[in-house]
Amino acid sequence: MDFELSEQQRLVREMVRDYVARRVAPGAAERDRTGAFPADQFRELGELGVLGLPFPEEVGGSGGDTVAFAIAIEEIARGCAATALTVAAHVSLGCTPLYLFGSEEQKRRWLAPALRGEYVAAFGLTEPEAGSNTAAIRTRAVEDDGAWVLHGTKAFITNGSRADYVVVAAVTDPDRGREGISNILVPRGAPGWRVARRYEKMGLHASDTAELVFDGCRVPLDHLVGERGKGHEQFLRTLDGGRIGIGALSVGIAQACLDAALEYARYRRQFGQPISKFQAIQFKLADMATELEAARWLVYRAAWLRDRGRPYRREAAMAKLFASELAVRAALEAIQIHGGAGYVRDYPVERYLRDAKLMEIGEGTSEIQRLVIARELGC
């Protein structure tokens, strides 16, 4: 059993860590304050090859693997969770369906530029009345005179108002239940597509989240992604991989919490000594570090299984569940260690808590992860 990272994976960590220290972390607090989208960072990460890490070179990727991508997301999230979410959603949700199921023309026209950072991608699944129950989607797509015509609304779409294309889950055959769902690529500017609103969120302010409306939106028939009626199967496979990304993002937030708590505990003095010398503080830091290491390797194992073409649905759900709940616990403990200072914006830990909470909700709530795990156990 070998727990060593490959040379490529170590180089990815070093490269991304250096880039984040220079170009991501310094502006994280300001982007949180203003909600500015990290457009420059997104483009630069494309130029560095980060967006293409889990894809082969023949489709425009960097020829890396899922483990390397998880490492990259972890490092970006350590500096700015909103930037990491922008990247993770783009790659795991917006690009993966085209790689796994798209036509050669779709890969050439849309996927390759997206992996270079020239396009922003999104995935349109969630609806106002269809959250955890993904089979309840109401968006319809009907054939009409050589085109798909879409009617419906998508909610809480990461990168939604910034996207150059959205892979939209829609009902194409209403009488076939889950086998009547298909995925259709809708490019920006398609007639009938509009951004209804941009959500004002508790955290992750620099990550774009939007409600999209498709009102008679027309796209060519060849924008169908994969086979008609295979949409439900496609987005379940897509979400499995996306949960690895959210797990890695959660690990990055938890690491940032530990970094901040440890630095503050060494600096803050009470009763004539640093508070890091008090056992109560030491135990909090020790528990954070232990759970963080466990979460990290749950994520890496799920990514490792995916890279080897082995079943990983259970492991991805476990990694996402444990890491996301850890991120919230770590943020709360970091605030507690900071005391009153942790409750004000002079320190970053209050932002870490606001950002961490979404990890327990997005790409399947903690409750859904437990359901997936239970089903994989045969319950």
TrEMBL record:
Recite the UniProt keywords alphabetically. Answer: FAD, Flavoprotein, Oxidoreductase
Where in the numbering of this chain does the Acyl-CoA dehydrogenase/oxidase C-terminal domain appear? Answer: 229-377
Which stretches make up the Acyl-CoA oxidase/dehydrogenase middle domain?
Answer: 122-217
Q: Which domain of life is it from?
A: Bacteria
Record domain Acyl-CoA dehydrogenase/oxidase N-terminal: where: 6-118
Record keyword Iron present: no
Gene3D superfamilies cross-referenced by the UniProt entry: Acyl-CoA dehydrogenase/oxidase, N-terminal domain (1.10.540.10), Butyryl-CoA Dehydrogenase, subunit A, domain 2 (2.40.110.10), Butyryl-CoA Dehydrogenase, subunit A, domain 3 (1.20.140.10)
The cofactor required is: FAD
Q: Which family does it belong to?
A: Belongs to the acyl-CoA dehydrogenase family.
Could you identify this protein by its name? Acyl-CoA dehydrogenase family protein
Q: Could you tell me which species this protein originates from?
A: Thermaerobacter composti
